Amino acid sequence: MEHKASVIENLAEVRAMIKRHKRNDTLFAVIGLCALMLGLITLMLLFWQLIADGYPKFTIDFLTEFPSRRAGQAGLLSAWVGSFLVMSVTFLTAVPVGVAAGLYLEEYAPKNWFTDLIEINVSNLAGVPSIIYGLLALGLFVYILDLGQSILTAGLTLGLLILPIVIVSTREAIRAIPVSIREAAYGVGATKWQVVYDHVFKYSYGGILTGVIIGMARALGETAPIITIGALTFIAFLPPSPITAEPPFLNFEWLSSGFTVMPIQMFNWLSRPDHAFHINAAATGALIIIVTLLMNGTAIWLRYKIRKNIKW
Question: Is 312 among the domain residues?
Fold first, then answer.
């Protein structure tokens, strides 16, 4: 009887403990949901305020006119063209190097202390403040390499900024591929390169692409490193066109041209005392957020689409 009473007592304690843990789990879930909703509601309110303030400037003229000292005539043409060109350089420099580095570290690099040191530094660089990259670029690209305050310098700077993000996302996407895929490929006589290119890279393409787009979305809104290297705050001309009507149909003079980008143009308008310029800044901020959301949404959609088509 004493043994039975002890078992019943222990069972009651276990049930009480399980009930307490479930209550704690529910409480944690509620707190987490409240924190999430607080952040989302705050973001939506701020976004709605930007749209409400900048709504009068949501016109074609705002995108096709140059900045002006008159707020009513000021546009965003040079800023969004500059952002596009800078992002092009960023993409062409950071993505190939980052993906190749991620593939090497995950598939080819020997596991030793030197590789571990590289991996630790790459992970740490992903959390370095962007202003540090701006100072590095100012000393290296502007003064040592004498690239000047140009589109090329800005693209290389932002390329360094997102390079750790691309490397980390590439490695995480590769790690998600089952080892059995590699073993099956080796089992039918595939070489190392065939395994990496035909199987590992193609199956991890969705995750890599997601990381690249998210990194580009971050670079689009960066201001500190671009200001540090000396981007212009007021520019009423466009860089030379990359494409010409005469052979060889390519022009690289735009790489050395002065520039501005949308975040800097927004900062410039916010620094003006005239409220009309603040309306322009609100419209610019709303456009930056919309483009960023579209890029992140595209990344999620592409990842889902690509993974859905994968047949293991």
Answer: no
